[in-house]
Structure formats: C-alpha cells, structure tokens
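Batch job 17 of 40 flagged for manual review because the log was empty.
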Amino acid sequence: MGSTQERVVAVILVGGPTKGTRFRPLSLNIPKPLFPLAGQPMVHHPISACKRIPHLVQIYLIGFYEEREFLLYVSSISNELKVPVRYLREDKPHGSAGGLYNFRDFIMEDNPSNIVMLNCDVCCSFPLPDLLEAHKRYGGMGTILVSKVSAESANQFGELVADPVTNELLHYAEKPETFVSDRINCGVYIFTPDIFSAIQGVSNERKDRATMRRVSSFEALQSATKTLPTDFVRLDQDILSPLAGKKQLYTYETLDFWEQIKTPGMSLRCSALYLSQFRYTYPHLLASGDGTKSATIIGDVYIHPSAKVHPLAKIGPNVSISANARIGAGVRLISCIILDDVEVKEHALVIHSIVGWKSSIGRWSRVEGGGDYTAKLGITILGEAVTVEDEVVVKNCIVLPNKTLNVRVQEEIIL
C-alpha cells in the first residue's frame, strides 16, 4: 500500500473504576489515567507519542469509566494536538482484545492499514514510528514491543521467546510459574485489521464448544466459574499465545526505559522518567532557577505556570508542582508530586512523597518516604485535603482524605 493511502488509528486502553484499587487513595478523586505524571495526565504521554506516528488519523480511548469523566480532557487534548481523540465507553469489561473488537466499526471507519494499540498504565518512550517501520518490514499480522528485564522480575509480566534472526514470536506465556525468558511484553502493539478476524475466531470457538458440550448438571456447576463469556477475549492468553510460532506475530525490542504504573509509588518513579525525557522532547516544560529572582532548581522539575514558588525555596530533582500550589520560603522538595491547590509552608521538607489536592503542610514539618517505589509504604501519600500541622513528621504513611495530623506518624495507613 502506498504512503498516500496509508492510514493509522491508535487505540489506548484506559481500564475502568473496578480496576486501580492499588492506586488508592489517589484514584478516589480522579480516574487513574488522568492522574498527573510530570505535570501531564498519565494518558497524555501515550497520546503525545501517538501524535508522532506518520499518517495518524484518529486516537480512541477505550474504557468503562463514565464518559463525563473524560469529556473535558478529550476535548482539550484534541484541540491541543490537532488530532481527533474520542472516548469509547464499554458497557462492561470485554478483555483487552474483546474491547478492541467491540468497537471495530468505529476503529475501521477510516479504513486504517494499521492499528496501534497500547495500555495506558505503561511508562516508556513509546518508539511508535520505529515500531511501525519494523511491523511493515516483518509483514505479519502484529508486532509487539518487548523489553529485557531481570530474570527475578520477569514472571510478573508476559514472557516471550522470539527468533533472534527474524524476530518472529515463537512462544508466549502470561506470568508463568517457571522462568521462560527475560524478554517481556511491554503492552504496546501494532496490528493489521486481520486482528479482528483472530478475535472473532476465539469467540466463535467458544460458542462452538458451549454448544457441543454435553455435561451433567454437577459438571456444569463445576465449570461455570471457569468458562469465560464468548465476548470476553484476552489479548495475551487468547490471541498471542495461540498465534506464537505461526509466522503471524513479531517482536521489536526497546532498549529505552519501560515501567508499569500499578501503584502510587511507581507513578512517582515514572514521573521522574518522563521528566528526564522532557530534556529531549519538551525542554520548555522544565523549570530553571538559581535562587536569585526564582527558586533554586536542581535536576528535572516541572512547575505549573499558576503555581507560586518562593525564590528562597529549593526544588528538585524529580519534582512536579501542579496548578495553584503555593511553596513557601526555605521549603525543600525532592522526588515528589505536589498536586493542585497544595500549600507547603516555610521551611517544610517533602521527599519521596505525593501530596494530594488542597492539602497543607505546616512550617518546619517533614513529609517523607523511604524511596522504595515498589513497597506498599515505600513512599508517603497524602490524600485530598490532608493537613499536616507545624513541626510534625510524617514518614512512610498513606493518609486518606480530610485528615489532620498533629503528632508524628510513621509506617501507618491512616484511615
């Protein structure tokens, strides 16, 4: 197909409110995909990456959040990027492949030659133009972005084996109990429209099995909980595993950063990764200052234009300050996310923490975490409208909204 005829549609899976419980208390206020990383909503980073794809005509967000929760964002990002972005709400979860198939008529409206599909909760540099070029060279139905991880952590993901010469996917196992490979599925794909036939094939096979099955009432009860609905199709177990080794799927390895954003701790880690990437992609978003007319800035820092930061504050590295925040004199911020309307008063310290909307941190107080992004209490998280009074230390805690802390707390979940 010539480049003049080429059209690409992008699909970003954003999930829904029944997921993301590990992201509480932050997801109590805002859908997880709209939580800010490096000052931009989580979903903004893959959307911006899609903008770099040649011949992109449309971006769809698929999930089962209420449409009103994405209405304003979808409108503003469409205007900003000059690419149509549309939110499609599932009536129920259909699985990663089933959700794609459920909206096939919308996705195929523009008659795309290729469909880019990615998960919202992954953090990487999204090398989508390179992935697309590799996909065209391979000539298969789909290409998977893969990354190398430690052998110890590989079983948390989909492990795969590819031909070292042709990059054909030979074997795929989702979170296997025994080690298969240190190459994992990054949750970023490019497919031809043939993917819809493959998904339909899984549904048809399930229907046929259900029709042919003749079992006793006891056996039926035993198997009822194990049988998936015919329209619930998982991309990994139902599509990738069966098609491995059949010259239909290929891999493209990224040597750049990749992380999965499942918890608030990992969101802080990923905010740092995106801030460091801004040096090359959006340097104008990074703050600077030497402590004379503006605050001292160390490393990669994002400050919203409406935030007020005292010139005697010292900020960074890895700090993101959101709209209408107020940062007082002598404040020290390191590796933290400060959300909208937060006030950090004079000489307070915030390190390895996320400070929720409308919260207040008193003078000479310390809000800190240990910096272990994977541990449950590895960072400190303050929910919305939490008040930390003057000279109070909060260390390695999760604090739910609307609490006032006037004594030292450590290693606690404060309900």
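Reviewer: the log was empty due to a logging misconfiguration, but the result itself is present. The chain has a mean pLDDT of 90. Unflagging and moving on to job 18.
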